[in-house]
């Protein structure tokens, strides 16, 4: 019998935690403050408002056709994680609604605070689910498929799906609550992408210069950063060039720009945002050298 690895156990636990946080946001903030939600959760809120159908049950039933769709595009593990996320979300929607431990937060006097809180909490929950290779079902499956097949950010795709369902929610919400719901959806998409991709951002630099050796040497001496020489071909003269690729922290940008300018004022520099940097100097400390 195949053993379940440590990473799989962590994935399962974190997906459940993310679903618990997301369900908590819906039950204690969105529902009592009459904020709608996007995707399948928004449809569940519609069914709850008009017919009193339990959100946990409707979420489970509506997810079945989407899981079948996901089976075609996702691998077995991702599909298994999706089923686990769907069951977890349905359970926690029922659990938070039924338990007397958690009380609903009636923030009707401050819809702005309600929208920010709902977006923040939901974003953290869904971000954890996606970071650990799962989905909570519903439009998350569509977002995951678009991320895998087309490279579209899951947060952006969810925002599009949310907007469609939110327009349908105008059948029972007024414009005021709808606008605050859109604010919550925007906050959710931003927080979700941050949690999924990593909160620590870095900057990647592509440096093209004939004095690449001098610049590389100064990066090593002044910043103590590793770098890579990339082979490139000039577009006009078709001559071979060396491009320096280096990743630094945001606070080091000014230093490295001054360093490059001193060595070669005509150097071409492109600075790109790196959402997450793993390795020496970022996720673990550089080794100390003793002489």
Q: What's the structural blueprint in terms of helices and strands?
A:
Layout: H1 6-30, H2 39-51, H3 55-73, H4 76-98, H5 111-131, H6 139-150, H7 154-168, H8 175-197, E1 202-208, H9 212-223, E2 228-233, E3 240-248, H10 253-263, E4 268-274
Antiparallel strand pairs: 1-3, 1-4, 2-3
3D architecture notes:
The chain has 291 residues and is of the alpha+beta class. The protein has 10 helices and 4 strands. It has helices at 6-30, 39-51, 55-73, 76-98, 111-131, 139-150, 154-168, 175-197, 212-223, 253-263, and strands spanning 202-208, 228-233, 240-248, 268-274. A 4-stranded antiparallel beta sheet has the order 2-3-1-4, with no helix packed on it. The longest helix has 25 residues, at 6-30. The chain is elongated and about 70 Å long. The N and C termini lie far apart (52 Å).
Q: Report strand order across the widest sheet.
A: 2-3-1-4
Number of helices: 10
Low-confidence spans: pLDDT under 50, at least 5 residues? Answer: none
Overall domain count: 2
- Taking the alpha carbons of the first and last residues, their distance comes to 52 Å
Integer average pLDDT: 79
| H and E string | HHHHHHHHEHEEHE
- Approximate shape: elongated
Give the class from helix and strand content and strand pairing. Answer: alpha+beta
Strand content: 5-15%
Task: Please give the radius of gyration in angstroms.
Answer: 24 Å
List how many beta strands DSSP finds: 4
